[in-house]
Specification:
It is a single chain. The protein is mostly helical. It has 2 domains: 109 residues, no CATH class; 318 residues, Rhopdopsin 7-helix transmembrane proteins. The chain is 60% helix and 2% strand. It has 17 helices and 4 strands. Strands 1-3 form a two-stranded antiparallel ribbon. It has a two-stranded antiparallel ribbon with strand order 2-4. Helix 6 packs across helix 15. The longest helix has 44 residues. It starts with 11 loop residues before the first strand and ends in a 27-residue tail after the last helix.
């Protein structure tokens, strides 16, 4: 088998131009030989490194010589001979020494753009140990994350939009709109829908439709505005949950204020002011992304980022992570713990006061409130807090513990370890960022657990939609006792009977175990004090 003997250089040419004919002087020039590799994933135009000249020159050399080199000529190259020219579709080339020592070319790193980089720079920045770690250890996990982003993102976005729109419609009904809770949760539903559209749907569309992404790349204002809304809506959802938790804590901590007959109107008015302040403050905070860049520049959707805004500030990113994760998380956790302890103490005092009476063992609303708080806390701890922790670790690792590429053997080992850990943190953040969107969908489950009124109105509204408006929807009541017949307890009782379960009242009685009233003594006298005299009808 004929082997290429000459060591050939690589030229830098535009990606759209074929490589010109190589002169005979280049065949004798001692320079590193290169083997063509597949093009790295990128979306751009301009000049690129190609491997066309070495391949064609190798074909010429194979047709005339038979010297041994590390790279053998292929059968196709020997058959084509000196007149063969490969189309210029390659972007990177590596040296034969590196190819012989490392079985994985730089092209296996499909997330890196190698255009305009020398082979020595690439070999120094992405050593063979890093490529081996990528292929054997990290790429299966990365492929799984990419599969989730590609095939499940649109489904989660569509489901979240449907559930949040339905929850917004329920909280806006006449039966639910008169409380401060409905004000907070209406704003939370709107914020969740904005996060699903601006953060996840647009990211998916930009990564899968390069023509749509060109609108952002060619327009600086649109690109900067997208960075602002990507940061604003998720942070707004977190702070609305924080404001709702603090509001519930104040209500339980000062219960006498709720005895005021005008308290619902006052609380709803205060909630509207709080929501307005939260939105205005977070819009101002998010506008800092108009100038500074953050994690949105390295999106897990892997679309080509905008290069209009290259300003970066480590302090600004740390402040953003603290405002979006640690500060609201700490307030929510501490408030929920205080609220849970307060409710437990109130229940114990109530049981001790009514011990031995007819109200001994009666049910109160603290169990439902504690369950709602527990769900909010678990949702935050499982889906939101891990993302903030990984973002902080990645920022600290990339900036504070940075190791530059080097050829020193000792420092090279430290650089390889740093780069491998950096890749792990990057894709772990990508997976947690996708899981973070589930919190905008699962909030509807928390709404269902918030109380029976929401479930009753949601059931009636869903039936009204499923029957295409043929079933009248009348939700003018302010409580379950004034709701229509198909939204009240009869529907729940019939559903329980069809499922073979006792009605809700029976289950509540069996759970709470109320004390039975004292038996009345039998009496046959018509004037007995235990029998109310029958009222006669008078014309």
């Amino acid at each position: 088998m004929a082997l290429c003997s000459q060591q050939l250089p690589v030229r830098r040419t535009p990606a759209t131009s074929p490589w010109p004919a190589a002169p005979a002087s280049e065949l004798a020039t001692p320079a590193p030989a290169y083997a063509d590799v597949p093009r790295a994933r990128s979306e751009g135009t301009g000049s690129t490194w190609t491997g066309d000249a070495p391949v064609r020159a190798c074909a010429r050399a194979c047709a005339s010589s038979g010297h041994a080199t590390p790279r053998p000529c292929t059968r196709h190259e020997r058959r084509l001979g000196p007149s063969w020219t490969r189309p210029s579709t390659r972007t990177m080339a590596i040296s034969p020494n590196e190819s012989a020592a490392c079985p994985y070319p730089p092209s296996v790193l499909d997330f890196v753009d190698f255009r305009g980089l020398a082979a020595s720079t690439v070999d120094e920045s992405w050593p063979c140990e890093v490529r081996t770690f990528w292929v054997h250890d990290l790429r299966p996990f990365v492929e799984a994350v990419r599969f989730i982003y590609a095939y499940f993102t649109l489904f989660v976005v569509a489901l979240g939009m449907l559930l949040n729109f339905f929850a917004l419609r329920v909280w806006s009904s006449r039966a639910m709109s008169g409380t401060s809770l409905s004000v907070y949760l209406r704003a939370l539903s709107l914020s969740d829908m904005g996060a699903l559209i601006c953060t996840y749907f647009l990211g998916y569309w930009r990564s899968h439709h390069p023509g749509f992404n060109e609108l952002f790349l060619n327009n600086e204002s649109i690109c900067r505005f997208h960075k602002v809304v990507v940061s604003m809506f998720p942070m707004t959802s977190q702070w609305l949950q924080t404001a709702l938790t603090v509001e519930r804590l104040l209500v339980v901590w000062r219960p006498l204020r709720a005895r005021n007959p005008y308290y619902p109107q006052l609380a709803a008015r205060a909630a509207r002011r709080t929501v307005g302040v939260v939105y205005l403050t977070l819009i101002l905070v998010a506008l800092t992304k108009w100038h500074f860049s953050g994690f949105e520049q390295y999106s897990a959707f892997e679309y080509q980022r905008c290069e209009h805004n290259a300003h970066s500030s480590v302090v600004a990113v740390y402040v953003y992570v603290a405002l979006s994760t640690y500060l609201p998380g700490t307030i929510i956790f501490v408030s929920n713990v205080m609220l849970f302890l307060r409710l437990r103490r109130s229940d114990s005092l109530r049981r001790s006061l009514f011990a031995g009476s007819a109200h001994d063992g009666a049910c109160y609303g603290s169990d439902a409130a504690a369950r709602t708080l527990l769900l909010f806390s678990l949702l935050y701890l499982l889906l939101q807090l891990p993302l903030g922790v990984v973002e902080t670790a990645e920022l600290y690792w990339d900036v504070t513990l940075y190791h530059p590429p080097t050829t020193d053997p000792v420092k090279r080992k430290a650089y390889i370890f740093w780069l491998n850990t950096k890749l792990q943190l990057k894709w772990a953040r990508g997976l947690l960022f996708w899981l973070f969107q589930l919190s905008f969908v699962l909030n509807f489950v928390v709404y269902l657990k918030s109380g029976g009124r929401f479930r009753a109105v949601a059931k009636g509204l869903a039936w009204h939609w499923l029957t295409c408006g043929l079933s009248p929807l009348r939700t003018a009541g302010r409580s379950l006792s004034t709701l229509p017949h198909h939204l009240g307890g009869s529907a729940a009782a019939s559903a329980a009977a069809s499922a073979g379960r006792p009605p809700p009242t029976a289950r509540r009685a069996a759970t709470c175990r109320p004390r039975a009233p004292a038996a009345r003594p039998p009496s046959s006298s018509p004037t007995s004090p235990w029998r109310r005299p029958r009222r006669r009808w008078r014309p």
